[in-house]
Design a protein that fits this description.
Elements (H helix, E strand, L loop, with lengths): L1 H9 L7 E4 L3 H15 L5 E4 L2 H9 L13 E6 L3 E2 L5 E2 L6 H9 L1 E9 L12 E5 L4 H14 L6 E3 L1 E3 L2 E2 L7 E5 L7 H9 L4 E4 L1 E2 L5 E6 L2 E6 L7
Helix pairs in contact: 1-2
Length: about 230
């Protein structure tokens, strides 16, 4: 199903496009399929959202750039850990949420590719990743807990680990807290309050960025949103 969603989104990619290339298992299917199109003669420029995606794309012969060299993109295609009917997302399970959000914000359109299991009525079944500066990590955690309580959200906030004795470190050199809040009744307000915490670099709530979601299910792929909309 992930590959079917990726293939459907790929149909919107045209010659000469500047593409943001997402991170994660679903986005990896898209990069694979794009590589096959490139080998067939399609010319695009890709901006990867992680070092993992960069290595995959380079291995497939996809021409790459950086966001400094190519600061405005036509389209970003990426996965999501959850999405709702308002095209709000939780992302960051793959650890690349900051770069994913920067690249998505630089794009005229953002297409999300997902299987139907990622669709939820209310965000929050998937723990919300919050990327933080390593300095004062415990203090930042306390601030996150206070913000959550103020919105009636409870649940463990856990430092993501790469090994039993080593925290996970993002490509940008940050830590990630995974916040198991459960149902998030007001994701817009939570996003704003998390952004106001000095130690928070960014969070996995993607609001107002996705323009269309390609959802693969047992009966095929359906599209939520507008594949033609969106502009910088």
């Amino acid at each position: 199903m992930k590959r079917a969603a990726a293939a459907a989104a790929l149909e919107s990619v045209a010659h000469g496009m500047r593409l943001g290339l997402g991170t994660g298992s679903t986005a990896a299917h898209f990069v694979d399929l794009l590589g096959a199109r490139v080998r067939g003669g399609l010319e695009v420029i890709g901006v990867p959202t992680s070092e993992r995606t960069r290595a995959q794309a380079e291995g497939l012969g996809i021409k790459l750039s950086t966001l400094d060299e190519t600061p405005e993109l036509d389209l970003t295609i990426d996965g999501a850990d959850e999405f709702d009917a308002a095209l709000r997302l939780i992302k960051g399970g793959g650890g690349a949420l900051l770069r994913e959000k920067i690249v998505a914000a630089a794009s005229k359109r953002m297409f999300v590719i997902a299987d139907a299991t990622k669709e939820v009525a209310t965000l929050g079944a998937f723990p919300l990743p919050v990327e933080i500066d390593r300095f004062g990590a415990r203090s930042t955690q306390i601030h996150i807990e206070r913000v959550a309580r103020g919105l009636g959200l409870e649940g463990p906030i856990t430092l993501r680990m790469a090994a039993p004795d080593a925290p996970y470190v993002t490509d940008g050199g940050h830590y990630i807290y995974d916040c198991a809040f459960g149902a998030i009744g007001d994701p817009d307000t939570l996003a704003q309050r998390l952004e106001a915490i000095p130690g928070v670099v960014d969070h996995g709530l993607f609001i107002g960025l996705a323009t269309a979601i390609f959802v693969a299910g047992a009966t095929g792929v359906r599209i939520i949103g507008d594949v033609t909309g969106g502009a910088l």
